[in-house]
Amino acid sequence: MHLIFGGAYQGKLDYAKERYQLGEEDIFFCSAGETGEGCPSGPQIDLNKKAVARLEDFVLCCVRSGVEAADYLEERREEWSNTIFLCTDISAGIVPFEKELRAWREMVGRTLTYLGKEAKEVTRVFCGLPQKIK
Amino acid sequence: MNIFISGGCKNGKSYYAQHLAKKQALDNAPLYYIATMEPADEEDQARILRHQQERDGWGFTTLEKSSAIGDLHADFSGSFLLDSVTALLSNEMFRKDGTVDRTAHLRIAEELEQLADQSGNIVFVSDYIYSDAMKYEELTELYRKGLAWIDRALARKCDAVIEVSYGNIQLLKGDILR
Question: Does residue B178 lie within any of the structural domains?
Fold first, then answer.
């Protein structure tokens, strides 16, 4: 498993596409549902895809559904041993005023700590440049 | 050498950038500071004054250029410091007449790449504003996306890319003498 993280718009997806020769059909894009409406479909990830992008939106859906994202992943750990996870790092800004966003920020932190420990490789993308973390 | 520097707020980017620009200046060639901020209020005036005082004695010639950066008149054998890309985009995107230029980032990226070609000796300073846990409204996202576009273009273009974290220097590309 390869965890790729970085700030918004830094080129995480471009990096993953180029490095692993991925097409759009190889990537699952997570969805967070709508603010105020929760995430009615519940947290969903298609682990048959090579890559899972916008993991932060999956986590936001988990927050809205009362599920701990790391628990969801732990239950399916055999299914993602070769998956590429892409997640926006939302940990280094202002603490949000809104309760839901505060919970989101913390759950993304816990989830990435869990995945970072499990990953064979961890890469941070900064202004389009990959930085090897693990 | 063309150098791109980014990092969080109040991390020591400007000071380090000044140091690099000064080191790149040859004897008898000018050392330029391209000032991009358009003061909007007293707080900005105070910030500008503080930066000016910090630069005192370094030998910088200040060029005021808060927009149309492609139209810079200078001696290109000199060493340049542009601080900051962030202010430049905000001046050009959110215009004084209240209109929004949604494609300003495309133009600015091109102009800055040309500037790097012209001088070959410029330090760009930007701000890393991409790790907020916020769902911003459309214009703020447009601005963040635009700045990331310019940052990535400059990171590709420049010989060295540096992240400054609380005074610590991380080299992501190239080689520089500390």
Answer: no
